[in-house]
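Run Diacylglycerol kinase through structure prediction, thanks.
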Amino acid sequence: MEGTESRSGTSSSIVADWSLVFWTLCSVILPVLITLWCSFQRSRRQVLIRDIFRKSKHDWHYTDLFGQPSYCCVCAQHILQGAFCNCCGLRVSEGCLKKADQLFLCKEIMMRRNGGAHRSMPHHWIRGNVPLCSCCMICKQQCGTQPKLCDYRCVWCQFTVHDECIMDCLKTEECTFGEFRDLIIPPYYLSTINQMRKDKRTNYEKVVPYCRKHWMPVIILANTRSGNNMGETLLGEFKILLNPVQVFDLSKIAPAKALQLCTLLPCNTVRVLVCGGDGTVGWVLDAIDEMKIKGQERYIPQVAILPLGTGNDLSNTLGWGAGYAGEVPVEQILRNVMEADGIKLDRWKVQVTNKGYYNLRKPKVFTMNNYFSIGPDALMALNFHAHREKTPSLFSSRIINKAVYFFYGTKDCLVQECKDLNKKVELELDGERIELPNLEGIIVLNIGYWGGGCRLWEGMGDEPYPLARHDDGLLEVVGVHGSFHCAQIQVKLANPVRLGQAHTVRLILKSSKMPMQVDGEPWAQGPCTVTITHKTHALMLYHSGEQTDDEASSVSEQDHTREQTDEDV
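Sure, done. The structure for Diacylglycerol kinase is below.
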C-alpha cells in the first residue's frame, strides 16, 4: 500500500513538473509567435500599401498620426492614421485606399484634350478636411466646423464652400486659380503647348495665360537633404497650392533638367524658388549658367531663396532671412516671391593652380557666390566636413551643426594651426602687392554676410569704410588674427583688418599646406596660386522685408559715408 502511494505521489509530481514546463514554454513561445505573426502581417500590409502607392495616380504618403482632426474621404469615419495625397489633399484610411483611387481623380498636371484648345477649366472639388479657419466663398461663414466629413475645397483655387451652399452651377463654374493664379501653370496651358510642339509651332504668345500681362510662373526646387530636413514637408505644401509639375525634388532630379520647363514659359518672367542652403543655390546657379551656354539666355529665370541650410549667408544678404523653420506659412512665402524685386549678383571664377609638376596638372576651377577664405574659418569648415562625411545622420539639425562649428573654433583658439599666414602667402589686389600684417586668415567677400550672419566688412561699424555691394564687380578682402578674433567680430567687439577692394585678387601660397574654402566647400591645399576674376552675373530676387536694427544702422552708416564722399568730390 505504501509503495503504491509513493508511486502515485511520484507520478503526480512528474505530471505537475511537466505541466509547469508546458505552461512555461507556452508563456514564452506564444508571445514570440504572436509577435512574429504581427510582424509578418505588418510587413505584408506595408508591401500591399507600397504596391498601391506605386500604381496610383495620387501622390500618397502614409502617416501614423494626422496633425489635425481628419475623416476618411471614402467611408467618412474619423481616422488617426492613414494616407494623404500630397497633391490634392485627399485623406483616407488604410482599408479605403483602393476605393479612393477608383473614386477620386488627383490634380491633373496636363488637361486631357477633347477636341479644341482649352482656355479655362472647372473647379475640382474635394469633400472634407478643409483647412482650419477657411471661409465659405458663398456665405462667408467659417467652414469645417462640424465634427464629421463636411464641406468642399477646390484643389486649384483653394476656395471652400459649405455642403448646403454648393450648387450645380459651382460644380461647372470656371476656376480662377485663386490668389496664386499668376504663379500657377494651368493644366490646359501645358496640353496646348504640348500639341503645338507636336505640330512644330513655337508661337506661344497667343496661348492663355502666356499672353496675360502679370503672369510670372514659379518653379520650386527643394533639396530634401538640406539643413533641418524640412524639404519633404515643403514639397507637399507647394504641390497643394501649385501645379505639381512646377515642384521638383533635387534629390531625384538635377536642376539642369528641371529648369528646362522654363523653355515652355514666357521669356524673362519665370521665377525660381530654391529651398535649401547656399550650396543648393550655387548648384542651381551653375545649371542656369549651362542654359546660357546652350543658347537659352532669354529663358533665364530670377532666383529667390528659402533658407534651409546652416549658414544661409547669401539668403541673408538678399533679404530672405538667416534660416527657415516653418514659422512663416507657405502662402506668405509665395506672396513674398511675387512681390520681390529683381537684382544682379556677381559670380566669380576661382582658379587654383598648383606649383611644380611642370604645370601638367589641370588647374582646379570653382565658381564663387559668397566668399573664398584661407585660414581658421576654412579649417573649421574642413573639420566639420570631415566629421559630417563619417556620421551624416548626426548633422540633421541646424543647432547641432553650429555647435560643431563652435567646438572646432574653440579648439583652434588653443592650437592656432594657421598662425604666421602672412609669412606663407603673398596677396595682390588688381596687380598691386599688399603688405600683410601678422594674420592667421584672409577672407575674400562678395556678399555682405559671412559666417552664419556676421557683417564682416562692417565690423563694429564705428569707423568709416568703403561701400560694399554684391553687384558692383568688386571684392572686399579682409584679414583676421585667428578664431578668437572671428568670434569678436561676430558679436561686434572688434573690426576686421580691411585689406582693400579689387576687381581681381591673386593669392600665392608659397609653402606648407593650408585649409581653403569656396562657399563652404573646404579642402587642404599645398603651394599654389589662387586667382579670382569676375565670371558673370546671376539674376536674383531681393525680398525687402522688415529690417533688423543692425541692418538699419548699417544702411544709415553707408548713406552717411556716401554723403561724405560726395562732399569730398
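Residues 547-569 have pLDDT under 50 and may be disordered.
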